[in-house]
Amino acid sequence: MQVMKWSVIALAVAAGTSQMAVASSQSESNGFIEDSSFNIFNRVLYMNRDFRNGPNGASTSANPAGYSEETGLGIRLLYESGFTQGTVGVGVDAHSLSSIKIDSGRGRYGTGQFAQTDDGRGDDTQSEVGGAIKFRISDTVLKYGNQFVASPVFSTDDSRILPEVATGTYLVSNEIDGLELSAGRFTALNDQVQTYRDSLGLKEINIVGANYSFTDNFSGGLHASDADDLYRKYYGNLNYNMPFSDEQALNLDFNIYKTKYDKGYVESYTTETDDDGNVTTQGVRESRDNTIWSLAAAYSLGAHTFTLAHQRATGDEGYRYGEDGGGTIWLANSVQYSDFNQEDEKSWQARYDINMASYGVPGLSFMTRYIRGTAADSYTERELNIEAKYVIQEGAAKDLSFRIRNAFYRDNAQGDVNDFRLIVEYPLSIL
Predict the structure, then answer these.
(1) Residue 366, SS3?
(2) What b/e readout covers 398-420, taking b as 16+ CB neighbours within 10 angstroms?
(3) I need a surface site. Which of 191, 283, 353, 406 has the fewest CB within 10 A?
(4) Measured between alpha carbons, how far is 148 from 184 in angstroms, rounded to an integer?
């Protein structure tokens, strides 16, 4: 899509030629060193997936045990410089990502935390470094290099001990109050267990987007992407918050994806014979598409939040993602284990959250939700999630958090899974 490839240049030119009289982020810059930050983020993840029917091949290990069980430590060093002063500010970002295997084994490998060695074990250690150069004019930032991205149509995943990393150009502009414009072109994407540049095989993806706050309580967004030889996606969001009092509010959140798959599926074959008797067979592909949307209504009452959500998929196949980032599914019923995104699937969710700060225990929270989905051919899947999290509020261990996640998944076609995770995170701000 040529329009998307040129969008980064067009936005950069527009930002450079529109100087605003009001104060901007760049005009308030203190300098490259003065505004810099350096953070260390530590995450320990214990993960156990029980497939509930003995050794059934669900593990990718050379000696499957019927369950996967691993523990890993991820250490991230994140440096972000400020911007040099002047009309055009220049800065750099840099990161170092390291994973350390604490516990794994040939029979228990497969939770998605480590690369696999030749003998079927998890790799002991892995590390990678990366960086990006960035430029700022007024309230517009252009960044090129290795980076973490959070766009509804291209979102790097951070569900294991290390995140995915994208390589490319990304521009975000906030020149108009309440309006954020974004555009990017990415040519590589590393998954969470590999250190080489493009382990997910992304050729090229171009993205554009706009988010606008119509009022303090009503916002919307439109985004689009074109992933080379894979698919084109269009995404929309509307979010409306209705406060009734200081203690009560109703939030409505609507998300929708429209995907057109470039490759489609081979539906039939044609055979041709030339004058020399050579026979050639060619598959005829049929265009495929998918539409999936979700609507969630969350009612908050003091420390309590009650949520109901409905999600529905239609089209020629289910919603696909991953080559455009493992986090590219901003839908209500994308939960701990399943995404409820099968072809023609309809799913409902009921959820309850409680914040214990109102009861004298700040930092402690609980959540539970139940989702049930049905699709064609009597397919059903169900998932129950139970979570608890505690964040230390003060002292030397301030911001140290402990989180327990339980998922009980049942599927009448592919089998059952119990997924348990213990996550310990400790962020440290050095600068």
Answers:
(1) strand
(2) eebbbbebebbbbbeeeeebbbb
(3) 283
(4) 12
Give the DSSP H/E element, type plus range, for residue 306: strand 304-315
Q: Where are the domains of the chain?
A: 26-129
In what helix (H) or strand (E) does residue 37 lie, and over which residues does it extend? strand 37-50
- Cα gap 242→208, rounded to integer Å: 29
Mean pLDDT per 10-residue interval, the chain, length 431 residues: 40 41 82 95 96 62 73 97 96 96 87 87 90 97 97 96 95 96 95 75 92 97 93 97 95 97 60 68 72 98 98 94 94 97 96 97 98 92 98 95 97 89 97 90
Three-state SS letters, 232-285: EEEEEEEEEEEECCCCEEEEEEEEEEEEEEEEEEEEEEEEEECCCCCEEEEEEE
Per-residue DSSP letters for 92-160?
Answer: EEEEEEEEEEEE--TTT--SSSSPBPTTSPBPSEEEEEEEEEEEEETTEEEEEEEE--EETTEE---SS
Q: Which residues pair with 364 in a beta bridge?
A: 390
Count CB atoms within 10 A of the CB of residue 216.
Answer: 9
> Is the distance from CB of 121 to CB of 108 less than 8 angstroms?
no
Residue 46 Cα to chain centre, angstroms: 20
d(CA 152, CA 190): 18
Q: Are 11 and 173 in contact (CB under 8 A)?
A: yes
Report which residue type is found at 42. N
The total of other beta-carbon atoms located within 10 Å of residue 394's CB is: 9
End-to-end CA distance of the chain: 42
Sequence-distant (≥ 6) Cβ neighbours of residue 290 within 8 angstroms: 257, 258, 259, 261, 313, 314, 315, 316, 317, 318, 319, 320, 343
Do residues 340 and 381 touch, judged by C-beta distance below 8 A? yes
Confidence (pTM):
0.87
> Virtual CA dihedral for 63, 69, 71, 77, nearest 10 degrees?
80
Beta strands in 177-247 (DSSP E): 179-190, 205-213, 218-227, 231-243
Give phi and psi for 29, each to the nearest 5.
-65, 135
Radius of gyration of the chain (CA): 24
Of 348, 303, 154, the C-alpha closest to 235 is 154
